[in-house]
Amino acid sequence: MRTKRIAYPYILWMIIFIVVPLGLILLYSFTTGDGDIRNIQFTLDNFKKFLDPRYIDVLWRSISLALKSTVITLVLGYPMAMIISKENIKKRNVMILLFVIPMWMNFLLRTYAWLTLLGKNGFINYILTKLGLEPLNLIYNDGAVLLGMVYNFLPFMVLPIYSVLIKIDKSLIEAAEDLGAGKMKVFTKIIFPLSIPGIITGITMVFMPAVSTFVISRLLGGGQYMLIGNLIEQQFLGTGDWHFGSAISIIMMIIILITMAITSKFDKDNEGGGRLW
Amino acid sequence: MVSKGIKKIYTFLIFLFLYAPIIVLIVFSFNNSKSRGVWNGFTLKWYVELFKNEEILMALYYTLIIAILSSVLSTIIGTFAAIGIYGMPGISKKVVLNLNYLPVLNPDIVTAVSLMTLFRFINVEFGFLTMLLSHITFSIPYVILSILPKLKQMNKHLAEAAMDLGATPFYALRKVVIPEIMPGIISGALIAFTLSIDDFVISFFNKGPGVTNLSITIFSMARRGINPVINALSTLMFVSLLILLLIINSKSSNKIGERGDII
Q: Which of A130, A162, A197, B127 is deepest in the core (most CB within 10 A)?
């Protein structure tokens, strides 16, 4: 059957809305000008500008925060995925649903609600003072942004690990137990290695949005808190330097590509449908 | 057993963490005081005010209309695209699939600014159309990715058999292929709808004057303080969603398992 022709409209769509826009970003990143396509000049200045310690600091902070939130979501999420996967099917589905439901509430609003909990007169400090403790400064700092990231991206770590865990062949575990493996050994030799594709998906699904977010840092980090996402937003909507903004976007894309390359090295089973999650 | 107790406590703490801000939202939608953090007695006034607040109602209208339009259109385009891509020969299939992955792999802020650059470049006026186009663009890849596995599972000879029996290709597509891949189409449409309704970044860069969605309204409110009316609206949306889910769950408690994996 010659069905391939019905994909042509989308191929056209892709060229217009995916290829051309990225080409434009690439073009902008290597040029300067007043926005008029006829007056542009090729240059590497936009990338050189990024080497300024100020921007390198922002880049470093973004990457380290994203790494931290990836590690924390993995440490918190893996046991959770394990616990859910061991429940019976009915309870399991309810628990997964409970993980998904928060994602259907506006994430800005959920993130903003943390201000009520963390704020100076917030709920946590209220309890602390009732207990006779000093109120803490919980907001507009690294910790608050990190918490926001972990909060928002935890389901993206739990769901892919869970979906891999439930597919593990139970007879493998039974066989190991029959052969005398203890609980720890079953985990390190069977369950964990088999769940690596899920972990890889989880890591990419948390790291990517974490490194590029500008909303969480804006809401929970206060106005002056800069991550690379905020930098891009500022260049495009604030200062209007689209050439520099494009260069930062390209740098961010490269970081993501490198991360993908590293993680896919550990992922032998690339074909699995676990990509979406 | 001790470890069972630890598991229960752990599960409770994780869910508490996930739901704490939602509980706060719901509780404060009944708060008499406008400021967050101060409880000042029970009231329903924010729910009344919600229906008078034009800014928020307009944002809700645009959120819903764009989510519906973009999920319908991206599902239609994506379904045909998936069937077409599936029938492609090796190399072009690989190229198209990789291009299709780009918006999924790219950080949404990069997709957002690249689309913004395109619209500015070809001088389109920012507004409803740019927002809708950008939502469709980032939804289609997810639709395709949820349909492709179903195509792989389908028996290749089904459509051929139908055509041998005299069906036109279009008839075979409509009567054989589409029903076979329907679960993928439905989950693709649901993903597209969810992505669109919750989107902030893409909309933020591709919105126009007068056209905002809820996320953008909330973002701009965050600076001057969120109007509790928003809390009331989210509570209503949350409750209606919960009821909808409970109905689906009770009607097909075994089917949701499959779907729960995807969404």
A: A162
Mutate to test the interface with A, among B14, B33, B213, B215 (most CBs of A within 10 A): B14
Q: What CATH superfamily is the domain A46-268?
A: MetI-like (1.10.3720.10)
Distance from CA of B37 to the nearest CA of A (A): 6
Phi, psi of A32 (to 5 degrees): -130, 165
The per-residue pLDDT for B7 is: 92
Give the span between the Cα atoms of A235 and A256, in whole angstroms.
20
Q: How far apart are CA A267 and CA A274, in angstroms?
A: 11
Interface confidence, given as ipTM, is 0.86
- How far CA A127 is from CA of A121, A135, B93, in Å, comes to 10, 9, 58
Q: Give the start-to-end residue ranges of the domains of chain A.
A: 1-43, 46-268
Identify whether residues B89 and B156 lie together within a single domain. yes
Strand partners, A42: A31
pLDDT, tens digit (0-9, with 9 covering 90-100), for B194-209: 889 889 999 999 999 8
- If asked whether residues B130 and B216 sit together in one domain, one would say yes
Closest CA to A213 of A41, A69, A85: A69
CATH of residue B146? 1.10.3720.10
- The answer to whether A233 contacts B109, with C-beta atoms less than 8 Å apart, is yes
With the CA atoms of A223, A224, A227 and A233 taken in that order, what torsion angle do they form, in degrees rounded to the nearest 10?
A: 60
Counting as low any pLDDT under 70, the low residues of chain A are 1-2, 34-38, 223-224, 267-277
Q: What does the pLDDT look like over B198-252, one tens digit per residue?
A: 899 999 999 998 899 999 998 888 877 778 888 898 888 888 888 887 787 776 6
Range of the domain at B23: 1-53+232-263
Q: What is the pTM of this model?
A: 0.87
Nearest chain B residue to A83 by CA distance is B7
Contact A249 B133 (CB under 8 A): no
